[in-house]
């Protein structure tokens, strides 16, 4: 079965009944299912011999220890062509880095952690690095090229002309998704040898040890390889000065879970990325089968060996009553690009309370709340994981809940963060799937609880129920008058 990653952001504003699936829309999904069935999944099996499941209550205090049942064990081909450790940072290119960075800092609770600008001797670009937990967001804008000294740039791949073309075409958007690798130069060479389109050859940063290199990802976005002298935990980029904050700003966001790309055609984009990285298709399972008729898109999720670097890709589906949200994105973004970034919170209730407080004072707006019927049905769907109080809290904050055979996903989407209906943010918390590795270290399996596929059918069902309830009320009122 194929992985289907869905974006529910625009769904919440829909209230149309489900539409029929057309034959031609099924073709690609079917193709991907056939391909994936031989490589990514088995119907039954066991976890890797090197890992064992641990009791969820141990690490998910506050949630009920739901039993895992009907497990569908995924096989992981571990087919990466070079070692990939984790997401390192995401770089936005924008017209004014100061203002973009401050908006995200306030909206997401990510303090300014480092800077590289005129005050640090960089006359080529202003870059501000925000950080919360392991999550790093970098915002970069150019200074006037007429007075800039290109050699003072702290990010050697920065190009004023590429930046100008990028921002005029896309507005505020993600230029680079950076992943930590053993060697940026080896990863670049291995990728280009397997068909990756080169963008920036390996270059050293000012410490003479940290290296970055870039290859084409999709649209005008690049996949950036970074290798650091200090190993996998080094986040401060050479050439940047740390910024000390006496203000505590932390809403609980901890790391990047997945970076989703919208592309015009899924198959070539997925094949391109798979071929040069070796990433495999991550299989997603939910109780309900959700097709393109409900989502208006086809998707696939690509994952690295550790399944902590997740790249879902979406393509639009045509011929539906309502235009695909992916097509809307592609038009407004002038092509492919990053659609959303899913950020893991260690306490989604806290994160949402803090973010909602700031929605109307410089923070981010959220998609409309689901109808009350969604939460009435939630007790039967997730009452074994969430307490009544937690379900009430989900309703108050507009948090959606989905689950797969292994765990539970709490999720919510912001509205697009900038002028255009393009990029937005997802906040998530994953519950369950806690494993112990060979050294006894506890970790959570990647993509535990899925990506929200089941919420499509659940939202349709609850919207229909809600409309019926309203109609019944109107009927009662008409009869009484
Ligand atoms: Fe997502």
From TrEMBL:
Localization annotation: Cytoplasm
Regions that span the bilayer: none
Origin species: Salvia miltiorrhiza (Chinese sage)
Molecular function (Gene Ontology), one example: 4-hydroxyphenylpyruvate dioxygenase activity
The enzyme's E.C. designation: 1.13.11.27
Family: Belongs to the 4HPPD family.
SUPFAM superfamilies given in the database record: Glyoxalase/Bleomycin resistance protein/Dihydroxybiphenyl dioxygenase
Coiled-coil regions, chain positions: none
Keywords: Cytoplasm, Dioxygenase, Iron, Metal-binding, Oxidoreductase, Phenylalanine catabolism, Pyruvate, Repeat, Tyrosine catabolism
GO cellular component: cytoplasm
Protein name: 4-hydroxyphenylpyruvate dioxygenase
GO biological process per UniProt: L-phenylalanine catabolic process; L-tyrosine catabolic process
Record pathway: Cofactor biosynthesis; prenylquinone biosynthesis; Amino-acid degradation; L-phenylalanine degradation; acetoacetate and fumarate from L-phenylalanine: step 3/6
Entry-linked InterPro entries: 4OHPhenylPyrv_dOase, 4OHPhenylPyrv_dOase_C, 4OHPhenylPyrv_dOase_N, Glyas_Bleomycin-R_OHBP_Dase, Glyas_Fos-R_dOase_dom, VOC_core
Zinc in keyword set: no
Cofactor: Fe cation
NCBIfam families associated with the record: 4HPPD
Domain VOC: 86-242, 255-415
Reactions catalysed, as given in the entry: 3-(4-hydroxyphenyl)pyruvate + O2 = homogentisate + CO2
Signal peptide stretch: none
């Amino acid at each position: 079965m194929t992985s289907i990653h869905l974006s529910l952001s625009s769904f919440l504003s829909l209230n149309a009944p489900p539409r029929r699936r057309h034959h031609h829309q099924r073709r690609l999904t079917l193709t991907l299912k056939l391909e994936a069935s031989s490589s990514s999944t088995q119907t039954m099996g066991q976890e890797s011999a090197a890992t064992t499941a641990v009791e969820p209550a141990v690490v998910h205090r506050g949630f009920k220890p739901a039993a895992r049942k009907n497990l569908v064990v995924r096989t992981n081909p571990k087919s990466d062509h070079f070692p990939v450790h984790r997401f390192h940072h995401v770089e936005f290119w924008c017209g004014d880095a100061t203002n973009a960075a401050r908006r995200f800092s306030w909206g997401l609770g990510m303090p300014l952690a480092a800077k590289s600008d005129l005050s640090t001797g960089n006359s080529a670009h202003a870059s501000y690095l925000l950080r919360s937990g392991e999550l790093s967001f970098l915002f970069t804008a150019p200074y006037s090229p007429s007075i800039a000294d290109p050699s003072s740039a702290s990010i050697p791949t920065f190009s004023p002309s590429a930046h100008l073309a990028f921002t005029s075409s896309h507005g505020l958007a993600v230029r680079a998704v950076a992943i930590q690798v053993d060697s940026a130069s080896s990863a670049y060479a291995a990728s280009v040898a397997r068909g990756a389109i080169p963008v920036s050859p390996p270059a050293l940063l000012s410490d003479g040890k940290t290296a970055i290199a870039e290859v084409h990802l999709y649209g005008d976005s690049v996949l950036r390889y970074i290798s650091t002298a200090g190993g996998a935990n080094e986040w401060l980029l050479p050439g940047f000065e740390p910024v000390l904050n006496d203000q505590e700003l932390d809403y609980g966001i901890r790391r990047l879970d997945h970076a989703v790309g919208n592309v015009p055609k899924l198959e070539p984009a997925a094949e391109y990325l798979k071929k040069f990285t070796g990433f495999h298709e991550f299989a997603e399972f939910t109780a309900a089968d959700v097709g393109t008729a409900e989502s208006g898109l086809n998707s696939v999720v690509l994952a690295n060996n550790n399944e902590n670097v997740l790249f879902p890709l979406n393509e639009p589906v045509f011929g539906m009553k309502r235009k695909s949200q992916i097509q809307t994105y592609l038009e407004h973004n002038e092509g492919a690009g990053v659609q959303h970034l899913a950020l893991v919170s260690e306490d989604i209730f806290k994160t949402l309370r803090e973010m909602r407080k700031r929605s109307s004072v410089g923070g981010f707006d959220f998609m409309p709340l689901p109808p009350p019927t969604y939460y009435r049905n939630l007790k039967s769907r997730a009452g074994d994981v969430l307490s009544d109080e937690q379900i009430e809290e989900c309703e108050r904050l507009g948090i959606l809940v989905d689950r797969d055979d292994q765990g539970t996903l709490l999720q919510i989407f912001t509205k697009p963060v900038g002028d255009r209906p393009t990029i937005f943010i997802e906040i998530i918390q994953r519950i369950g799937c806690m494993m112990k590795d060979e050294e006894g270290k506890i970790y959570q399996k990647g993509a535990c609880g899925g990506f929200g596929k089941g919420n499509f059918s659940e939202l349709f069902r609850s919207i229909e129920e809600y409309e019926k309830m309203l109609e019944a009320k109107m009927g009662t009122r008409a009869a009484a008058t």
